[in-house]
Write a structure and sequence with these properties.
heterodimer; A: about 300 residues; alpha/beta; Rossmann fold; 6-stranded mixed sheet; 11 helices; globular; B: mainly alpha; about 75% helix
Chain lengths: ~300, ~260
């Protein structure tokens, strides 16, 4: 018999009164995958994560984690999960080391084993020197590393990271990415949510784009970029009418931003070259298409609040 | 969710939460043990040497007592209420809302019901610790009768758990931390003054005495005073029944209301 999937959701729904925060979504996460949930604020990413991790009761549909129903077996599920929440909730009443030792007790890890794992995780997250410091003495990046270390105490088979690098400086972010990649290489299944498309491209082998409580798109980052955008994006600004007409007549896929016109180049090279030859003085930027273009193309480029 | 399920969800893991709170308490034990050690000394000075000399003797249940000897058990009762109630109101609220400690704990195999039960047990424990230390200090001053005074410890367990549950009910209901002023002024401070803590309630008008008898602290103070003075309160069975009933009821309510606040 095949072992059950880490996550299997069908028709998963969360309603708050009349409002659906998550509206009947279906998705699966296979063993060893790193799946990223992308989407604007309020899209339903965090609510989805909270249902999978048994924080929030589901309103409809079903989600199984390792084959267990979240409603009926939360203890069994949570014993096998590592959760890194969006906001740091380290225990300010304890030192760095004791945060981990006390947390290990909630999992029923025997104290000798807890001490050994704590030392190893502090080492891995480069926090050994801070072991006896109070939490308030840590920088934002260190706190995040400690939260991840804490999520790894029970050697989880599924690690859930809700915006793991939001608000961190580039060095701290890269260090966390590196650790996540190491965990992935070691076979840990990972579910993460993020606003950063670069983060998703760097870490995830599959992304799920959510907007307004539903799943818009799903696939590998490369396939999504190729399908939705193409290979290159040409950004134009200060556009005279004749350029605009030329672009329209060429039949390319375009999108009007607030100041710039985005022209999607499926083949790569053609759009930039043709505009450059015809209008050499036109202000333009030619760059590779990214996941961010997919996201903005699908979710809209304008600010939503 | 069915309320029976809420009770069934409490597991022995609740002690892990209790243990967490105890660990924090012990990290700062020097400051934590100071108040229960010093408070009795201050009371002896203020009420024994100071006010007691003005009041002289008090008639309590047909017996004349020096005021200090009458009043000292009341100090223990107030301590049982304050230490439990303030632990599960302000301190639990800080852990729940500002520190998000509960969120961190429920990412482990523990359920939210375990966390609530652990906080409840810890609130009661704090009352027991404080009452026991105070009792020892008062014993040193020769103000309580042994061995009956030892009954104060089990009484502190029941009273502590009752006021701990009452605190959690408030924590489940207040919108923000400042709102704790409301139950404090409507419930806790009237109880502090009018529960037979500092004067016998039978000198009150009948209606006021009737009101005092509805307050849980009144029943704690009948029993604690009886234990400290070495005499059996006339209606001790009724007092015990009231306290056990009220403790179970408030604890059940605390669990249901806190769960409703925490699970969305």
């Amino acid at each position: 018999m095949r072992s059950p999937l880490p996550i299997e959701a069908t028709g998963l729904t969360k309603r708050y009164g009349a409002l659906a925060a998550v509206d009947a979504i279906d998705f699966r996460v296979a063993r060893g995958e790193c799946v990223g949930f992308l989407g604007p604020n309020g899209a339903g990413k965090t609510t989805t994560v909270r249902m999978v991790t048994c924080f929030t009761p589901i309103s409809g549909g079903m989600v199984r984690v390792f084959g267990y129903d979240v409603t009926r077996h939360p203890r069994e599920i949570k014993a096998r999960l590592g959760v890194c929440p969006q906001e740091d909730n380290l225990d300010p009443d304890f030192s760095v080391r004791r945060n981990l030792l006390v947390y290990a007790r909630y999992f029923g890890i025997p104290s000798a084993q807890a001490r050994a794992r704590t030392d190893r995780l502090l080492e891995m997250m480069q926090l050994t020197e801070k072991a006896d410091s109070p939490i308030e003495a840590l920088s934002g990046g260190m706190k995040r590393r400690l939260v991840i270390a804490r999520a790894l105490l029970n050697e989880p088979e599924l690690l859930v990271l809700d915006e793991p690098t939001t608000g961190l400086d580039p060095q701290a972010r890269h260090m966390i990415w590196q650790r996540i990649r190491q965990l992935r290489a070691a076979g840990t299944t990972i579910l993460l949510t993020t606003h950063y498309m670069e983060e998703a491209s760097q870490l995830c082998n599959r992304v799920i784009l959510m907007d307004e409580a539903r799943i818009l798109l799903e696939g590998t980052p490369d396939a999504l970029i190729a399908e939705e955008i193409g290979r290159e994006v040409v950004e134009l600004w200060d556009i005279p009418e004749e350029v605009r007409r030329f672009v329209q007549a060429s039949g390319w896929i375009t999108e009007q931003g607030e100041e710039r016109l985005f022209v999607y180049d499926r083949t790569g090279g053609e759009v930039g070259v043709r505009i450059g030859r015809r209008f050499p003085h036109q202000s333009r930027l030619i760059r590779n298409a990214t996941l961010e273009d997919v996201f903005l193309h699908r979710a809209g480029r304008s600010l939503r609040e | 969710m069915q309320w029976q399920q809420v009770f069934a969800n409490v597991s022995p893991s609740a002690w892990r939460v209790w243990q967490r709170d105890l660990d924090v308490f012990l990290t700062t034990w020097k400051t934590n043990f100071l108040p229960p050690l010093l408070e009795p000394v201050l009371y002896v000075l203020a009420f024994g040497v100071g006010m007691g000399s003005l009041i002289g003797l008090v008639v309590y249940q047909g017996e004349e007592l020096p005021y200090l000897r009458f009043m000292i058990p009341g100090v223990i009762c107030v301590a049982i209420m304050f230490w439990a109630y303030f632990e599960t109101t302000y301190s639990s609220f800080v852990r729940m809302y500002y520190q998000r400690t509960f969120d961190a704990i429920i990412a482990t195999p523990l359920l939210v019901e375990d966390v609530i039960a652990g906080e409840w047990l810890w609130g009661g424990t704090k009352a027991v610790l404080t009452a026991t230390i105070m009792l020892g200090m008062m014993g040193l001053f020769g103000l309580v009768s042994w061995p009956s005074a030892l009954l104060v410890v089990p009484l502190a367990v029941v009273g502590g758990l009752l006021f701990s549950a009452l605190g959690l009910i408030c924590t489940a209901l207040v919108p923000k931390i400042d709102s704790f002023n409301v139950p404090a002024f409507l419930l806790i401070f009237p109880m502090f003054l009018f529960s037979g803590t500092f004067f016998p309630i039978d000198i009150l008008p009948r209606w006021a005495m009737g009101f005092a008898l509805t307050l849980p602290l009144t029943h704690v103070s009948y029993l604690v005073r009886g234990a400290c003075l070495g005499r059996t309160p006339p209606f001790w069975l009724a007092n015990v029944a009231y306290l056990l009933g009220a403790t179970l009821l408030t604890a059940a309510l605390a669990l249901i209301l806190m769960r409703r606040r925490l699970i969305k």
